[in-house]
Amino acid sequence: MLFDFAIDVRPPQVQSSYQFRLRDLVVDQARVLRQDNLSILVIRRSPALIAGLEQATANLQDPDSRRSRQPGFAENALRSRHPELFVSYAIGTDLGCPLRVDGFELVEICGRARYDFAGRALRGDGEFQNLGIPDYNFSDDFNTLTIRP
User: Fold this and answer.
1) What distance lies between CA 19 and its chain's CA centroid?
2) Could you give the CA distance from residue 24 to residue 21 in angstroms, rounded to a whole number?
3) What are phi and psi of 74, to 5 degrees?
4) How confident is the model over 102-141, as pLDDT tens digits?
């Protein structure tokens, strides 16, 4: 199973965009959406979580996301187009493995990297980039997420 995440084995013709239906997103809980070989992490954040993320910078490796991969719209403290909705690729930046949730942190299952709910790498035993943010948009009613890989 590790092979699937360690090497990009996407179909020969990658789609120009992927659409995901956002049903029943629970506030402050991470959810992974999958289509083909694309895994996307989505978090609907509460106002309290947003406030905490905006204030937390001391424990971050790259608080301004200068060494990270994200579109221009995500170059902010919350690394998102809309503060209440966080979207990233669901793979870590240490060994490229899937993420699991540990409280209000995201942890790479086969590496040492840990991230907050804005996808920012936390200080620890190594240096890691923040989670990669895809180019994405929501429908007007926020029920559909479109990703352009």
Assistant:
1) 16
2) 10
3) -105, 15
4) 999 999 999 899 999 999 999 988 889 999 999 999 999 9
Residue carrying the six token digits 């200080």? 123
Q: Do the Cβ atoms of 59 and 123 come closer than 8 Å?
A: yes
CB neighbour list of residue 104: distance below 8 Å, 6 or more residues apart:
28, 49, 116, 117
Q: Tokens in use for 89?
A: 């690729």
Q: Cβ(143)–Cβ(22) under 8 Å?
A: yes
Identify the three-state secondary structure at position 85: strand
pTM of the model: 0.86
DSSP 3-state helix, strand, coil percentages of the chain (rounded to 5)? Answer: 10, 30, 55
CA angle 93, 102, 39 (to 5 degrees): 45
Task: Give the pLDDT band (50/70/90) at residue 67.
Answer: confident
Do 51 and 96 touch, CB atoms closer than 8 A?
no
Q: How far apart are CA 2 and CA 10, in angstroms?
A: 15
Planar angle of CA 49, 128, 63, nearest 5 degrees: 45
Other Cβ atoms within 10 Å of 63 Cβ, number? 15
> Phi first, then psi: what are they for 92, rounded to 5°?
-75, 170
